[in-house]
Design brief:
By secondary structure, this protein is an alpha/beta fold. A hairpin with a 6-residue loop joins β1 and β2. It is built from 9 helices and 7 strands, in the order ββαβαβαβαββααααα. It folds into 3 domains: 195 residues, Rossmann fold (3-Layer(aba) Sandwich), CATH 3.40.50; 73 residues, no CATH class; 32 residues, no CATH class. α1 packs across α5 and α6 packs parallel to α8. The N and C termini lie far apart (82 Å). It is elongated. Strands 1, 2, 3, 4, 5, 6 and 7 form a 7-stranded mixed sheet that branches. The longest helix is centred in the last third of the chain and has 56 residues. The structure holds flavin mononucleotide. The site of flavin mononucleotide (FMN) has 16 residues, from α1 and β5. The site of flavin mononucleotide has 16 residues, from α1 and β5.
Length: 319
C-alpha cells in the first residue's frame, strides 16, 4: 500500500484479472471501465490489469528447485504485491473459465499468494450474467483464504438490449458503469477495513509481550482493539470503521497499523521458535537426569562397601 502526494487516503493496489482470453472480451471491457472509473473518480485506488494469457497450463513438473516458470513467477509477484483483487469472470458451462482456474491454481502454489486479501467479482455472460461462475469462484476463494465483498453483486447479461458493450468490448451502458463504481467503492472500503483488522495498533508489539497469557497451544495473545486498551489512535480508527473519521486520521492510523502488523508477525515467529527451543531443552534436561539416576543406582548396587545390598544382590543373582 502506498500513498499519493497530497492524497489523504492510503492507496490500495488492486490487481484485475480477466477470465477470458478473447480479444474483444466483454469482461476485459469491464476491467477497462473499472480502471477508468478509479482514475477519474476514486481517490486512493490503483487498478492494474494483470494478463493471465502468458501462463502455461499448470503442471507441477514445471516447478524446479522450488522455482516456477518465469511467466508464473511474474504473475505471482503481481498477486503478492496487490492489496486486493478484481476478478472479471465470464461463465463457461456454469463455472469459471479454464484460464482463470489455471491462473488461480498457479498463484495458490506454495506459498499461496492470494491469502488474506480482499476481492470482488464482476461478470458479463449469458442470461444470469455469470452468477453461477461467481458463486463457484467464491467457493474456490474459501480455500485460497480470499475475502470477497458480499455486496453489491455485479452480474451483467451481455446480450440483452439495449446494448451494453460496443463492438470492441467497451462498456457503453451508463447504469452498469454506476453499478461498477459502487462495487469498486465497496471493495476499497472493505480492503481498508480488512487491513485494519481489530488489533490495537500503536501498542501491538508491547501488548504481545505483556499478554502472553494464552495457553501453550494457542500461542501469544494479542490484545483486542477495545476501548479498555485503547491508546490515542483508537478513536480515529474505530470511527474510521464506522465511516465517520476524518481522512487524515485514516492515513495516520494505516501507516502505524502496517508497521505494527509486521512487528506482530515477527514477534509471533520468534515466540514459536523460542517455544520449540524450550521444549528441546526441557526434554534433554529430563533425559540427562534419568541417565544420571540410572547410573547412580547401578554404581550403588555394585558398590563393595554396601554389604547388605551386595548380599542381596548376590543372593538374587544366584537364584
Ligand atoms: C465454452 C463456453 C461456455 C459457456 N457457458 C456459458 C454458461 O454456462 N453460462 C453463460 O451465461 N454463458 C456461457 N457462455 C457465454 C459466455 O459467458 C459469453 O460469451 C461471455 O461473453 C464470454 O466472456 P467474454 O466476452 O469476456 O469473452 C459460454 C461460452 C463459452 C465459450
Amino acid at each position: 500500500m502506498g500513498s499519493e502526494a497530497g492524497a489523504s487516503k492510503p492507496v490500495i493496489k488492486v490487481a484485475a484479472i480477466c477470465g477470458s482470453l478473447r480479444k474483444g472480451s466483454f469482461n476485459r471491457g469491464l476491467i477497462r471501465s473499472a480502471i477508468q472509473i478509479s482514475k477519474e473518480s476514486i481517490n486512493g485506488m490503483q487498478i492494474e490489469y494483470v494478463d493471465i494469457s502468458p501462463l502455461p497450463m499448470l503442471n507441477t513438473d514445471l516447478e524446479v528447485d522450488g522455482k516456477y516458470p518465469a511467466a508464473v513467477e511474474a504473475f505471482r509477484q503481481k498477486i503478492l504485491e496487490a492489496d486486493a483483487f478484481l476478478f472479471a469472470s465470464p461463465e463457461y458451462n456454469y463455472s469459471v473459465t479454464g484460464p482463470l482456474k489455471n491462473a488461480i491454481d498457479w498463484a495458490s502454489r506454495s506459498p499461496n499468494v492470494w491469502a488474506d486479501k480482499a476481492a470482488a467479482i464482476v461478470s458479463a455472460a449469458g442470461s444470469l450474467g455469470g452468477a453461477r461462475a461467481q458463486y463457484h469462484l467464491r467457493q474456490i476463494g474459501v480455500y485460497l483464504d480470499l475475502h470477497f465483498i458480499n455486496k453489491p453483486e455485479f452480474f451483467l447479461n451481455a446480450f440483452e438490449s439495449p446494448a451494453k458493450f460496443d463492438t470492441d468490448g467497451n462498456l457503453i451502458d451508463s447504469a452498469s458503469r454506476d453499478r461498477l463504481k459502487a462495487l469498486l467503492l465497496a471493495l476499497q472500503a472493505f480492503t481498508l477495513r480488512l487491513q485494519g483488522c481489530s488489533l490495537h495498533l500503536p501498542t501491538m508489539s508491547e501488548s504481545l509481550i505483556q499478554s502472553c497469557g494464552g495457553t501453550e497451544e494457542e500461542g501469544p495473545v494479542v490484545k483486542a482493539h477495545t476501548k479498555e486498551n485503547a491508546g490515542e489512535g483508537f478513536h480515529a480508527w474505530a470511527n474510521f470503521r464506522l465511516g465517520t473519521t476524518s481522512e487524515s486520521a485514516d492515513w495516520y492510523n494505516f501507516k502505524r497499523f502496517n508497521q505494527g502488523r509486521r512487528a506482530v508477525k515477527q514477534l509471533e515467529d520468534r515466540y514459536w521458535k523460542l517455544r520449540e527451543r524450550e521444549r528441546v531443552y526441557k526434554l534433554s534436561l529430563v533425559g540427562t537426569w534419568v541417565l544420571v539416576i540410572v547410573l547412580m543406582l547401578f554404581f550403588w548396587v555394585m558398590n563393595d562397601g554396601n554389604v547388605c545390598c551386595r548380599r542381596n544382590f548376590y543372593y538374587h543373582s544366584s537364584i
